[in-house]
Design brief:
alpha/beta; six-stranded mixed beta sheet; 37% helix
């Protein structure tokens, strides 16, 4: 690797690096085991995510793909990206004049088409008519990520309400009281699952005289968050062998950094 290279658009800026470096430094920068710059390893990970390339296709002026991959696995095991995303969310909320922890959340799901790598854990979504993985996501009213988990696409959204809201309450200190959902979450089972976690489910319904696209109150925020994620090519389809890798990719999208 050349000591000086031309920067890529995906490279972390000085301001961003000052924020993320304390989370990513798992051992001293001068440790004898370290052969590559930690910042360059992170730049390599961002490049893979943003441009949707295979690990082995990483440019030669970045650290070797296997070094970036191995360091990424260490970060995943340490849970540094989850911690960073939650701390950053709290800071952004305070900066916008909100309380650090939200009292309302919005949940929804999205189906990503499978690939040969993710095919063994995929399911068929009859409503969307495609085979893949389903992302169940919860955001606050500003669109910042609260919780996310991955299931096969044939899993019913209502069956995941309890698990998703439990994850939201865990990261927010049980501050969420109201959860907005679409009409796919109607039913007593979903409502009772939310109440068991100390939250009320509020179904935002379509207008009866709907004509064309209608922007639904509150609900549009989570749809925007899904749209933000698709700017990263590796999040357009499910390219990951493991569900955990797909979850972390969403945490690492451009909104998080």
């Amino acid at each position: 690797m050349s000591p000086i290279r031309k920067p890529y658009p995906s490279d972390v800026s000085d301001e961003e690096w000052s924020l993320v470096a304390p989370y990513l430094t798992l051992m001293d920068e001068g440790a004898p085991q370290r052969q590559h710059s930690l910042r360059e390893l992170f730049n390599g990970l961002r490049y893979v995510l943003r441009y949707g390339i295979a690990w082995r296709a990483m440019p030669n002026d970045l650290p070797p793909w296997f070094a970036v991959y191995q360091q990424s696995q260490r970060w995943l095991s340490a849970g540094v990206f989850e911690a960073l995303a939650q701390d950053l969310r709290a800071q952004l909320r305070v900066a916008s004049g909100r309380a650090a922890e939200p009292t309302a959340a919005i949940i929804d799901s999205r189906t990503l088409r499978s690939t040969p790598e993710s095919g063994p854990r995929a399911g068929y979504d009859g409503a969307k008519r495609k085979r893949g993985s389903k992302l169940h996501m919860a955001v606050d009213t500003l669109g910042h990520l609260l919780a996310l988990h991955v299931t096969p696409a044939n899993v019913d959204d209502r069956a995941e309400v309890g698990k998703l809201i439990a994850a939201v309450q865990d990261v927010t200190g049980e501050s969420v009281e109201l959860v907005y959902v679409d009409q796919g979450y109607t039913g007593e089972k979903a409502s009772e699952a939310a109440k068991a976690q100390g939250a009320e489910l509020c179904v935002v319904k379509l207008a009866e005289a709907k004509k064309g696209f209608v922007l639904l109150p509150k609900r549009w925020v989570v749809e925007r968050s899904f749209a933000w994620a698709t700017r990263c090519r590796r999040l357009v389809k499910d390219y990951e062998r493991y569900a955990q890798s797909l979850s972390v990719n969403f945490i690492l999208d451009y909104r998080a950094f």
